[in-house]
Write a structure and sequence with these properties.
- By secondary structure, the protein is α/β, with parallel strands linked by helices.
- About 35% of the residues lie in helices and about 20% in strands.
- The chain folds into two domains: about 250 residues, TIM Barrel; about 70 residues, Type Iii Antifreeze Protein Isoform Hplc 12 (Alpha-Beta Complex).
- It has an eight-stranded parallel beta sheet with strand order 5-4-3-10-9-8-7-6. A two-stranded antiparallel sheet has the order 1-2. A two-stranded antiparallel sheet has the order 11-12.
- Strand 3, helix 1 and strand 4 form a beta-alpha-beta unit.
- About 40% of the residues are buried.
């Protein structure tokens, strides 16, 4: 799958900074998140398209209070997409209602991300996203294998095969013992598409483990240092933490390479030469004398005959002149047996 020239499933992990509700209803704060994310090395920044009026029928007071912090005004989409693009980031927002899909398709978002809350419960929205033909990530979270299969069938029915699965846990924050990262391989084997990890755990340890296990994409919540009281803040990384994570992801990617072991690395070969064991005589030996294994000590040195050649020396050579005890044995000390 390719998104705006970036390949997903080959090469570097595609990394998304998920702002979620950390903008707190302030577009300037949202832009500050984009500015900070642009310095971390991520590929994309993502928000969540939430709208109380278009999501709920007769919402409770508690729901209304929550949405006063997390709603994402529709006129933000284009403004933030353009701002993100100016900062070198791809922009998207997870649609939670049908109009959000239309808005984002109209402004030209390069990809969609369907949260598990919609992937597992809202097939009409899945159909609408799939019909755009755009690359789409969707999270497993609360979706069963059967529901994930249904989502994929919808995409295939729309002729859209540009999809990838985010393994995730719909627990915030998620404890490590429920993460089960090896499900990524299960998804990859079952559905033959790129698979990544949407991380809701604390810290970066599990995220790095996901990369080591082959995650093609990683999504992690992101907040400014000053955002401490939004619903998503407790499991979000600050800019310095996110930068550190991205740096370490790139290190893990390199370390997980699988070059054929046909030759040693040059530095390894050079080191091996410095620690080779050589044949060293234990006692004086005269010209023409045959040698036996009991005549040798095996000691490290850069010069002399390697211990791996001992059998050849014993079977085919004798001394060409007297050699003193404690001397390294050299080929010039030997002559062939008659």
């Amino acid at each position: 799958m390719e998104i705006a020239g970036k390949k997903v499933g080959q090469g570097q992990t595609f990394i998304i900074a998920e702002v979620g509700s950390n903008h707190k209803g302030d577009i300037q704060c949202a832009k500050e998140h984009i500015d900070a994310a642009a310095e971390t090395g991520v590929d994309a920044i993502k928000f969540q398209s939430l709208n109380l009026r278009k999501l709920w029928h007769m919402p409770s007071k508690e729901i209304r209070e929550l949405h006063s912090q997390i709603d994402f005004p529709e006129d933000w989409h284009l403004e933030l997409l353009e701002y993100a693009n100016c900062r070198g980031l791809l922009f998207s927002s997870s649609p939670t209602y049908l109009d959000a899909v239309r808005i984002m398709d109209d402004i030209g978002v390069p990809f969609f991300k369907i949260a598990s809350a919609q992937a597992g419960t809202f097939p009409q929205l899945v159909h609408k996203v799939a019909s755009t033909g755009k690359p789409t990530f969707f999270s497993s979270g609360i979706a069963s294998y059967e529901q994930i299969s249904s989502v994929i069938k919808i995409f295939q029915g729309e002729g859209n095969r540009n999809y990838a699965i985010f393994h995730c846990n719909s627990v915030y924050p998620a404890p490590a013992n429920i993460v089960h990262l090896k499900r990524m391989k299960t998804f990859r084997d079952m559905f033959k598409c790129p698979v990544g990890f949407s991380d809701h755990t604390d810290g970066i340890t599990v995220a790095l483990a996901a990369i080591a296990l082959g995650a093609d994409m990683l999504e992690k919540h992101f907040r400014l240092d000053s955002i401490l009281d939004s619903p998503d803040a407790p499991f979000s990384l600050t800019p310095s933490q996110f930068t550190y994570m991205v740096k370490n992801i790139r290190i893990v990617e390199v370390a997980c390479g699988n070059k054929d072991r046909l030759d040693l690395e040059a530095s390894e070969a050079s080191f091996r030469e410095t620690i080779r064991y050589r044949l060293v005589l234990r006692c004086d030996k005269g010209e023409g004398e045959e040698l036996s294994a009991t005549d040798f000590d095996y000691l490290r040195n850069r010069k002399g005959i390697d211990v791996n050649q001992e059998s050849l020396v014993l079977s085919h050579f004798v001394l060409s002149h007297t050699v003193k005890s404690g001397s390294l044995l050299h080929w010039s000390d030997l002559k062939g047996k008659v």
